[in-house]
Design a protein that fits this description.
Length: 136
């Protein structure tokens, strides 16, 4: 083994093949599109093409996603995602006051331990990557 590696091995440990690609995430890309990772689709239980409700928690910079057949949002039109898992993000970008220089943004799944009384059952929260939230 190379002597450049300063880590001192401490016995035996299995190494799991997990990458960032395996984690559920949603991206707002530089072309102003929402993109659902395959992990996010599996988590949400959505098969594309599909429609999803999108919400945003401003205090914690969390994107909240739900299927409209599970969560009822009054006077809210769902976002459409095509078979490639892309959707138009322009209404999202406009509502948040973002511009093209702010993009791309990646939101990663907040995890099963995340709970917020303000979020409806059946919704999933994704946190802005690199953001240390108000409740962290």
């Amino acid at each position: 083994m190379s002597k450049k590696n300063n880590a001192d091995p401490q016995g035996f440990a299995w190494i799991s093949y997990e990458t960032d690609v395996d984690q559920p995430y949603i991206t707002v890309d530089s072309q102003q599109r929402l993109y659902l990772s395959s992990g996010a689709c599996t988590l949400i239980g959505a098969e594309c093409p599909t429609r999803l409700l999108i919400g945003y928690d401003h205090a914690n910079m969390r994107l909240v996603v739900a299927r409209p057949d599970i969560v009822r949002a009054v006077d809210t039109k769902p976002f459409r995602f095509d078979k490639r898992r892309y959707g138009n993000a322009k209404p999202f970008i406009k509502t948040l006051g973002l511009n093209k220089n702010d993009l791309p943004l990646r939101f990663t799944y907040a995890g099963r331990d995340f709970s917020d009384a303000n979020l409806p059952d059946g919704s999933f929260a994704f946190t802005l990557s690199g953001f240390k939230g108000a409740d962290d």
